[in-house]
Amino acid sequence: MATKTSRKKRPDGTTVAPIFEQKSRAARGMQDGGCCGGGESGDAPDRRRSPSLSPGPRAATDLTETMAEGSAEAEAAAGRVDSAPATRQDILHLKSFIASELAHTTKTFMTEVHAIGTRTARLEERSEHIVDGYNELARYTETLADRVSELESAFEDLSNRSRRNNIRIRGLPEKVPSDQLEAVFIGIIKQLLPTLPSTYCLIDRIHRTLGKSRWQNTLPRDVVARLHYSSTHESLIRAARDQMVEYEDHPLSFFQDLAPSTLIKRREWRVVTEVLRSNNVRYTWGFPFHISATYNDCTHTCTHLYKAKDFLKKLGLEIPEAVSQLNAPGALPRLPREWSLPEV
């Protein structure tokens, strides 16, 4: 409850503040730092100013005391209100206020939850489209990988078939000029196959492999020769396996000319071929690329290195650790369309 502060009436006899009292002309001059007209302070007549409306010192003191008493009464009244028990009307008003605040907060919260649910539903729909697109790309990529592998295998087979009549000679010195390579090679053929007719010693072309010339204390570049007759090529390869051929004290070796990709694959199979040779198992290479071995009158074939474990197992041979750790290339992972919680 608010208390009204009583206000005293202005007293009838109002005194004038000292600063507004009438001063003599002499006094004003002294205050200004000089004197006016040589007059004395008592010469100027005393003029009375209009009465001031400002309360005097005593009235101001009474007003301050009255305001202090009003403040004390207001504080006492507020203390009585706070310590008083709440009425039924106050409780109902508080209940209505809490209910309205809860309803407003719940409505705001439900609006935000609904917005989050809508955004989540859109994200799930988009994620399903992304998952479907990824799975389709994974299948398409695997199909492309298989087709590329088939094309590489076909290209490698064509390259090796075009080199079928080629023979690679290693160890022929670089000092033999290019225009004499054919004559030197025909002499080597007659040395290995003395009974071969001259008409079958026909050479389509002969040249050294690409690269810079190699001279002292280095292995010379290989010489590649294409024989016109495949029968001459096969007879020369078989004779070179059983005979030692030299040219001016330089030992020569003869190999089948193969595609670079085939040579790389054969190097990768070196672990398997060492096991076959150590167990005196004869093997042959085939086209498209594969290896065949015969054991106990049974011929087994293998096309990929990761299948070499089963290949050696069928032959009854020991499987090296490097081969046992090889696995088939796995398929690309697929993503599920449904969301799943992580396992704890």
UniProtKB/TrEMBL annotation:
Q: Where is the composition biased (Basic residues)?
A: 1-10
Q: Which domain of life is it from?
A: Eukaryota
Q: Where is the composition biased (Low complexity)?
A: 51-60
Q: Which residues cross the membrane?
A: none
* InterPro entries linked: Transposase_22 (IPR004244)
Renumbered to this chain, region (Disordered) spans 1-60
Q: Where is the composition biased (Gly residues)?
A: 31-41
Q: So what family is this one in?
A: Belongs to the transposase 22 family.
Supply the name of the protein: Uncharacterized protein
Q: Which organism is it from?
A: Leptobrachium leishanense (Leishan spiny toad)
